[in-house]
Amino acid sequence: MSLKINGSCINCDVCEPVCPNQAIAMGETIYVIDPARCTECVGHFDEPQCAEVCPVECIDPDPDLPESEEDLLAKLRQLQSEHPELYR
């Protein structure tokens, strides 16, 4: 499933640059994760990098968007074909 940043976010800016899919951006008040781009780092890393670096542990699985590892890999392949410049 996609990940989601909860209201505990302190806008520390450490999650955005570590996302290999550029799925994290500043929202109106806190950072947000684009579920269409989030693969939980499947295909890149063993653990979601945003959650690894978050100092306040405000990144959780989004229960409204369940996805299997196969779904996440398919999403990654789609992103790679649509945006090859991001995956060189």
Task: Tell me what the structure shows.
- The protein has helices at 49-53, 69-82; strands at residues 3-5, 24-26, 31-33, 59-61.
- It has one domain (3-86): Alpha-Beta Plaits.
- The chain has a two-stranded antiparallel ribbon with strand order 1-4. The protein has a two-stranded antiparallel ribbon with strand order 2-3.
- It has 88 residues and is α+β, with helices and mostly antiparallel strands.
- 26% of the residues are buried.
Report the biggest beta sheet as strand number plus sense, adding barrel if it closes.
Answer: 2 strands, antiparallel
Portion of residues within helices:
10-25%
Radius of gyration: 12 Å
Number of helices: 2
Helix and strand pattern: EEEHEH
Terminal-residue CA separation? 25 Å
Q: Enter the CATH topology name.
A: Alpha-Beta Plaits
Mean pLDDT: 95
Low-confidence stretches: none
Strand element count: 4
Strand content: 5-15%
Give the overall shape. globular
| Domains (count) | 1
Reported CATH architecture: 2-Layer Sandwich
Q: Tell me, what is the CATH class? A: Alpha Beta
Strand order of the largest sheet: 1-4
Structural class: alpha+beta
Strand-helix topology:
Elements: E1 3-5, E2 24-26, E3 31-33, H1 49-53, E4 59-61, H2 69-82
Antiparallel strand pairs: 1-4, 2-3
Which key features would you list for this structure?
Alpha-Beta Plaits, 4 strands, alpha+beta, globular, 88 residues, two-stranded antiparallel ribbon, two-stranded antiparallel sheet
Q: What's a concise summary of this model?
A:
The protein is α+β, with helices and mostly antiparallel strands and 88 residues long. It has a single domain (3-86), classed as Alpha-Beta Plaits (2-Layer Sandwich). It has two helices and four strands, in the order βββαβα.
